[in-house]
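Table S7 (text form). Paired inputs.
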Amino acid sequence: MPRLEEHCWSCSCSTNVKSKDLSSASWIASKLSEMMSILTSMLSHVYRSLYSVHSTNLIRRGLVLFTVGVLLALVLNLLQIQRNVTLFPEGVMDTLFSSAWWIPLCCGTAAAVVGLLYPFLDSHLGEPHKFKREWASVMRCIAVFVGINHASAKLDFANNVQLSLTLAALSLGLWWTFDRSRSGFGLGLTTALLATLVAQFLVYNGIYQYTSPDFLYVRSWLPCIFFSGGVTVGNIGRQLAMGSNEKPHND
């Protein structure tokens, strides 16, 4: 009898221990599951917050670049019209700053696209832009760009080839002074090529025209203007991107 009682007691104890182990294991598993669900929800919330902040910054930068492109288009197009470099059909110029309505919109959209592409290419090509990263340098770049456009309208040369070579040298000097990156040079050339093709298409269809064209339907110095404009807008976009990236760090 004592042996039977001892055997029963040991069986009951082992059963209790096993049940306690199972209950503790299930409790730990449930707690781990709760912690994992909390951690997953926190990570998803952080991701949504970061994504919304990134989207907001992207939209804000795009709006600023669009506004800059519109203002530059109004001022520079007015200069070209006053010097009779570009001619528009009758009735087109009765708009803001005596400019065709579609020019500021097209230039603003192009400025937003190019200005957002520059920092995007810098990050994906592993070539961060660290040369003269300050707003004072960006403002000087804008002033030089406006000066190049002013020179294209007011400087008188013996022929358009001399003017084009001079503006090409000034545009390369602008890139060397305020950029010096391969991505900036490549994107500036791409911008100049595409914008010149669009200008050729518009002139060919009679939307507007250039006086004394020497490069198919446009002036030969026009790609230089587009190149320097792409570099200028790119520097603005880079500075805006740098400011939006540094703001959370400073806070």
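Next pair, protein 2 of 2.
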Amino acid sequence: MKIDALAQEIFDDMIAHGGKVYIVGGSVRDEILGRYDQHDVDVEVYHLSYEKLCAILKKYGHVHTFGKSFAIVQLEELPHYDFALPRQETKTGHKHQDFEVMIDPDLPLEKAVLRRDLTMNALMYDYLEQRVIDLCGGLSDIDQHIIRCVDPEHFMEDPLRVLRVARFVAQFEFQVEEKTLNLCRSMAQSHMLDHLSYERIYQEYCQILMAPQPSLGFMFLKDIGALPPYLQALTTTHQRLDFHPEDDVFTHTMLVIDVASHVKKKTDHPLWFMWACLLHDIGKPLVTTKEGHAPKHNEAGVQVFQNVPIITSKKERQYISTMIMYHMHLMNMSRHHAKDLSYLRLLKKIDGKVSMNDLIYISCCDKLGRGKVAQEQYDEFWLYIQDKQKRLGVQAPLPLIRGDDLLANGLTSTHLFKQMLDEAYDLQLQGLSKEKILRSLRKYEQR
């Protein structure tokens, strides 16, 4: 494995003091898979005490500790490496973090590996001997593209592992082994995932959404009955087959996020964009008719999104809410050959919340996430949008009239200023001059 030069120096020092050094977990798995994305390297050190581990690391820089109970240490000068002593864990409660940790520097490898979730994550790289130790058949499972748990009893102790399996399904496009699949289904049906914090669920969903084929992760959650209500409702909401040959809204959404995964890097906020694509139609279950029509499902979607608690960032919520609200506006404008005023008004509505670039991409992904798309209609959409962008730009025009202008022209009804400024801006978009706009606003003073 490729190991940082400073890390090698530290490893050699640990070995000189009687330690045994293994690299464990995801970095070993990804080395086998030929994936070299930067992430933390987990180092497990045997036959050294916690005090000795810290003492050695302190010779090389500033040490950050996470408490003796976990025996996890980081070195500021080696930011992507986590050092830990071998440990066993016993479940003490329902929450993800409810574990009793027992540190044992001399723990046999066969026991230490049991706390790992999946066989492909239980591989160990022996630094001194430069070889991979595989005690659980992880190499064979990787070769066969199989996701398998290490130990069913330990696996069930942590409900977060169900979401981790979904994430790995999406990232690696592996198949979940039947016993592991049934185990995840049993954990979901027992409502074990209800004890996970919103933060941890959000983090795992983000990794699913940023995977090469995110639909695989959510399809897995659907199959085991672990979808949240706002996504589960999509599975039984059917659409007009002449518009959506793929039928239900969930299937459509899965097609949309897979298309979106190919263009997300072209957007201003790739992760937020993926969330918006996942949630763009969550209003349809509220408004869909027996015939499959879904009038004002965008407005209903904004309403439903208010009750999606796992996203806490105000800026991200504003972005997603705006994308839900306007995700079909551009396609409708193109289909009806809407005039410039409609485009300019839309620029104002999304100003400071979502870029026109991102709105265009979600519109295209929504269009392409169908069982059948007419190429001619798609091409017409791009011609329409490119014309608007070229002539009218992608930013809302700056307002000609501000509050100071109202005061300077003798308008004193300050309680009406917001309403007056909104109308002034719309008159501006219609092409009126500043003088004509101010004359028009005097009607507020004459009421």
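The radius of gyration is 28 Å.
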